[in-house]
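Q: My hope is that you can spare some time for a protein that puzzles me. Underneath my words sits a plain record pairing an amino acid chain with its backbone structure tokens. Those tokens are not coordinates but codes from a learned vocabulary of shapes. Thank you; the sequence and its tokens follow:
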Amino acid sequence: MRNEQRLPTRTPESRAFAERVQVAMTLSARLNALPFDDLDARRAALTEIFGGPIPESLSILPPFHCDYGLGATFGDRVFINQGCFFLDYGGITIGDRVMIGPRVTLSTAGHPVEVAERFAFITSAPIVIEDDVWIGAAVTVTPGVTIGRGSVVGAGAVVAKDVPPMSVVTATSIVERKRLKPA
């Protein structure tokens, strides 16, 4: 994967990562237990999950699951629907006016493909979602992917390579259907 980083397991760094995962998952569970109409408490929980201020215009509908929290950044007017999973250790950057459908998984982390290395490292690479992107329901975005400005990713797609700007892609093995004209 492009821009892959490796975190060796059984090290002080991997233990610190595991401790942060416990914190983020506990905070996510608290977020998901809040009354839906308690917007102030939801915003406070999200601020804790992400380790600092979030844009006023960010809207994340619970349930929401995050395994690290400190690797995600958001632009203005971002909407994230219910049931999403962010595995953000490698970094997730979301631009302005992005819409993310229900049950979307953004996964920046994994393990090496080689059998002998799988338990020895956690791999990660950043996901970048540029401005004005719409990601449909139940999409999975894999580590190291950039989704270009203005693109649409159809429901159920597995995005394992970059999506060009102003494209509509669908299917489990990204098929570019057409190019869109700039606004």
